[in-house]
Every structure is written in structure tokens, then in C-alpha cells.
Design a protein that fits this description.
Low-confidence stretches: 1-9, 15-20, 22-38, 173-189, 446-450
Mean pLDDT: 83
Helix content: 25-40%
Shape: elongated
Number of helices: 10
């Protein structure tokens, strides 16, 4: 009996020692258990703004999927739709129509979150454009902005596209805000604008004949303008904001797009699909244009023929106007200055048209709206956040996209606006994309004294 009691006591002691040893092993060998789990950032998502020929009912499933993708990154504690609506309703906050950054910050403060996500999705022809931005509720700063274009279906955006978009949004470290115009000129630029006195500016010729017949340049005077478009403008896209004031130096711009005979004169060939010597050269890539410019400047040195920067292009297109088109804001006004196809208006245009047959703008430039899209020098960014204020070109190593402006013969009414901008790979070419040249003003001649 005594032996049996001893065995039981030994057994209890052994179990206790094993338990203590196991707990100690867990504590020392697995410090993860003694560390707190990483804290997720509290975030809320405004309903995506659905614009431009998309059904408003798409907002809810797209926004819910966006919430799910944000949660699955492991970085965020996402406020659910029902809870968000309940809290904001109790506070008397109207969520409908809340699309601005200021409105997002106000909603975020009421919800008690650190970050807000807002955005929009639009459809233009077969292209879906998704824009998202993440906003710091405390400071109101936009922490990251992304823009993704899809040629797929809404269903594929729901299943694949939003996951990629959220990854890019989270990984983006761009702090987007509106600083004062920088005082330095360190931003990359394709333009060379010499310092000119007022007398030298006044003496610049208004027109210069280029080296090839019909290649006429007009002086675009120095000035400033507001680049981009307001959200109230019909056809406005998120890649046209934020609006900013840009200072532009003087330069010369071709009155028309480069024609096929002018291109052939330098390149000894013509890539255009629709052949007509007085029609804009098209089916030409941004890369091919660089070779054209190299040859042109080698044969006719001293003028620095080049593509316009994006800011120069819009400044020249507007010619002092602030309306959507330099002809105003009506279809009739646009049709006076632009070649474009419109079945609803009984206008049948199926290929580029000869240049300079429509009315020019106040700078004397033809076909800045419609006919063919025009390449500019800049790399494409999905917004104007952190863009230069001095009309210099945006140059980014590794960015394969370039900007095209002005709309083409296949573009809808809203797609030909002065602020309209699209992207195309620098090796891409289409039958509705061409270009025009600009030329730097000459350096001032230094006065000599005997």
C-alpha cells in the first residue's frame, strides 16, 4: 500500500515537472507567443464614384471588393459598409456625393480612422480607368495615388484588377500635396528657354518658315495658365487633376501636325495607313519620332526641333481660353475646329483628314482638337500631383508610357477637350496618332562694343 502511494506521488510530480518544462520550452523557444500581434491601421473606404457611361449600381460591388482586398493585405482594419453607414448616419453625415479629399477627411474623423480611401472608375469606349487615392485623415495629405487602365470586363476587374490596384496603392510611397511653385529649375525639361529681355521678346518674329515646305512655325508667347480641368467639366477625368498654375516660356510651334510628305522628306518612308501627302503622318511611334528628330536636327542644326512638353501643348491649345475647347463648349463650336466621327450627329470620318482645313485657335494653330492624337515629350503619370510648374517635361527612367493629347477622328465629343490626356506605350502606333513639332526661341545675340 505504501509503495502504491509513493508511485502515485511520483507520477503527479513527474507530470507537473513535464508541464513546467513544456511551458518553459514554449516561452523560450517560441518568443513569437510573447510578442503582441502587429496592429492594423484603421481605414475606411468611400463608395467609388462611377462615371462616364457606367451604371451607378456597380459602385457597391466594386467598393466592397476594394474593402476585402485592403483587409487581405494584412495591413488594415477595414470598417465594414454597414457599420460605416450607421456611424455616419448617426452623425448626420451625407455620404452620397462625397468624393472630394476634404469630404473624405471629414468622414474619416467621424469614423475615428487613420486613413481614408476614395476613388472612381470610368469607362471610355472599351477602356476602364480605375483611380484610387489614400488620404491621411489627420493631415489631409494624399499619401498615394494610382491609376490603372483595363481593357477587360468589370467581372475581371472585380476578381483580378482590384487586387493589383490595391497592391500598387499600398506600395506607393508618393506623398501628394500641393506645394508652392518650386523656385529651382532642377526638374527635367526638353525645352531650352534663354533669358530674354523685354526688348528681345518684342523683337521675336511671329512666324518662322521651317526647313521643309509647309513646315510653318508661329510664336507662342510666354505666359501662365491653369493646367487640367475642374471636376464640374463634362468629360473630366481624374488624371486631369489637381489643377495647377504653370509658367510657360516662349517657343515656336508648328501650325499643323507633321504631314506625310514632310515625314518622308527626312525618313525616306511613310508608315501611314491612309496615304495622302497633306494628311498627318500616323502609325508612328514615339521612338520613331526620336529618330526623325535626330535626323532633322542633324540636317538642319541650330534650332532644336523637338516634341512639345505636355504643359506647352495644353497652353498652346487653349490659347488663352479656359473653356473645354478653344472654340467654346458646344458641339457646333467643336465641329468648326475639329475633324471627328459622330454617328449621332451625322458626321462620318473614318481616317485622318488634310491639315489646316478647319478654323485655327487664337495662336494660329490648326487641328489641336481631333483629327489625330498628338505625341508629347512627357512620360505618363496618372495625375498631376508633384508635377512641375515650369512647363518642363516629366522624364522617368523605366516608364514606358508616353502622353498623347488632343483626341483623334474617332474620339467622342468629350474626348477632344483641351485637358484630355491619354497614355500609349512609346513603341506603340495607331492610325489616329501623329505629332507636331516645336522649336526653341533663338539665343539672344550678345551686343559688342567697339
Amino acid at each position: 500500500m505504501e509503495l502504491e502511494k509513493l508511485d502515485r506521488a511520483s507520477l503527479r510530480t513527474g507530470i507537473a515537472l513535464v508541464t513546467i518544462g513544456f511551458i518553459s520550452l514554449l516561452f523560450y523557444a517560441c518568443p513569437l507567443f510573447s510578442q503582441p500581434l502587429p496592429q492594423r491601421v484603421r481605414i475606411a473606404v468611400l463608395n467609388l464614384e462611377v462615371t462616364y457611361s457606367l451604371e451607378p449600381t456597380l459602385s457597391m460591388p466594386l467598393t466592397d471588393r476594394l474593402r476585402q482586398e485592403l483587409f487581405e493585405t494584412g495591413n488594415f482594419q477595414v470598417i465594414e459598409r454597414n457599420m460605416m453607414e450607421e456611424i455616419l448616419e448617426e452623425q448626420g453625415f451625407q455620404m452620397s456625393g462625397c468624393v472630394s479629399d476634404a469630404c473624405a477627411v471629414e468622414a474619416g474623423q467621424l469614423l475615428g480612422v487613420t486613413r481614408m480611401v476614395a476613388g472612381s472608375i470610368a469607362r471610355i469606349d472599351d477602356l476602364y480607368s480605375l483611380n484610387l487615392r489614400m488620404i491621411d485623415v489627420e493631415t489631409g495629405e494624399v499619401l498615394s495615388v494610382i491609376s490603372e487602365d483595363y481593357t477587360t470586363s468589370v467581372q475581371q476587374i472585380l476578381t483580378e484588377g482590384l487586387q493589383e490596384a490595391v497592391t500598387n496603392l499600398v506600395n506607393s510611397q508618393m506623398v501628394a500635396f500641393l506645394p508652392e511653385p518650386p523656385k529651382s529649375d532642377s526638374a527635367p525639361t526638353a525645352a531650352h528657354t534663354p533669358a530674354l529681355t523685354q526688348a528681345q521678346l518684342d523683337s521675336l518674329p511671329e512666324r518662322i518658315n521651317g526647313p521643309i515646305a509647309g513646315m510653318d512655325f508661329v510664336l507662342i508667347p510666354e505666359g501662365e495658365f491653369v493646367m487640367g480641368s475642374p471636376r464640374s467639366e463634362d468629360g473630366h477625368m481624374p488624371n486631369e487633376e489637381p489643377m495647377r498654375q504653370v509658367n510657360v516660356g516662349p517657343f515656336y510651334m508648328m501650325t499643323t501636325e507633321l504631314t506625310q510628305n514632310q515625314y518622308r522628306r527626312i525618313m525616306l518612308g511613310n508608315p501611314s495607313e491612309y496615304l495622302d501627302e497633306h494628311t498627318p503622318v500616323h502609325n508612328v511611334s514615339w521612338i520613331a519620332i526620336q529618330e526623325f528628330l535626330r535626323r532633322l536636327n542633324a540636317e538642319f542644326p541650330g534650332h532644336n526641333y523637338r516634341l512639345p512638353t505636355e504643359a506647352e501643348w495644353e497652353y498652346a491649345c487653349r490659347a488663352g481660353t479656359t473653356s473645354p475647347y478653344y472654340s467654346g463648349n458646344t458641339r457646333g463650336g467643336l465641329n468648326r475646329v475639329a475633324w471627328r466621327h459622330s454617328s449621332s450627329e451625322g458626321i462620318s470620318i473614318y481616317h485622318p483628314q488634310p491639315v489646316a482645313l478647319k478654323e485655327p485657335n487664337d495662336f494660329g494653330l490648326y487641328d489641336m482638337h481631333g483629327n489625330v492624337w498628338e505625341w508629347v515629350q512627357d512620360c505618363y503619370r496618372p495625375s498631376y500631383y508633384d508635377a512641375p510648374y515650369d512647363a518642363s517635361a516629366i522624364v522617368e527612367e523605366g516608364n514606358e508610357l508616353r502622353v498623347i493629347r488632343g483626341g483623334g477622328f474617332e474620339s467622342p465629343f468629350d474626348g477632344c477637350r483641351s485637358a484630355t490626356r491619354r497614355s500609349l506605350e512609346k513603341t506603340g502606333h495607331r492610325d489616329d496618332v501623329g505629332f507636331r513639332l516645336v522649336m526653341d526661341v533663338p539665343d539672344p545675340v550678345e551686343e559688342t562694343h567697339e
